Amino acid sequence: MYLKITPAVLLLCSFMFLACSKNEEETTLLEDSFIRNGDFEQGEDHWLFFTNGGTVSIDTSLSNGKGSNSVKISTNGSSNPAIKKERIGIGVIQPGDRIQINFDHLGTVTGEGGMVNLILFVERAEGELGSPITHIFEPRPMLIDTWSTYSQTFEIPANAVVTGGISFLIESVCGGASGCQVDAYIDNVVLEVNP
């Protein structure tokens, strides 16, 4: 999709945190318009990393073809390490919008009880009373030893309060089962609204 460079386009890029790049006399709107650093080529920038008893790190040995980095999320016994994007699309994402999240993944699950979760939060503004909506996507991503793409959608309920935008979290989880280990590699995270 190409747009002529105009002050309105540049303002739109800044306001919605869109990734724009100059292509001769045009500006290209990249697919991952709501996600900065979805390919982890800028390391941890624009992400929150939570170790929660495990490890979360930028991996430079595995990526899925768009650069050289991915993120590795590994459990260490009973733990749930995670990466998170918080409060994106404030003032843009609305009730009734359809949210689609895609990412590439590979990895291994050893023992019993290990899994990867994708969790979406529909947020209220800071200090606003009420509870956010929390949605755990099913089916969960299944880790195998080759890259595959996980894609899920969620429609924000018409009566939802979205004044704080949305957040999402990708986590590796192991419960109390002995020998449980999850090593998940994540790359090319994209969030689209009404695709």
Question: What attributes does this structure have?
Answer:
mainly beta, 2 domains, 5-stranded antiparallel sheet, 195 residues, disordered N terminus, Jelly Rolls, single chain
Q: What's the short version?
A:
The chain has 195 residues and is mostly beta strands. It is 5% helix and 44% strand.
Task: Determine the CATH topology of the largest domain.
Answer: Jelly Rolls
Helix content: under 10%
Instruction: Please tally the β strands and state the result.
Output: 13
> What sequence of helices (H) and strands (E) makes up the elements?
EHEEEEEEEEEEEE
CATH level-4 homologous superfamily of the largest domain:
Galactose-binding domain-like
Q: Please identify, by name, the CATH architecture of the largest domain.
A: Sandwich
Overall mean pLDDT stands at 85
In angstroms, what separates the terminal alpha carbons?
A: 13 Å
CATH class wording of the largest domain: Mainly Beta
Number of domains: 2
Note the quaternary state here: single chain
Morphology: globular
Strand content: 35-45%
Put simply, the count of helices is 1
Spans of at least 5 consecutive residues with low confidence: 1-32
Sheet of most strands: 5 strands, antiparallel
Rg for CA atoms? 18 Å
Structural class label: mainly beta
Strand order of the largest sheet: 4-7-12-9-10
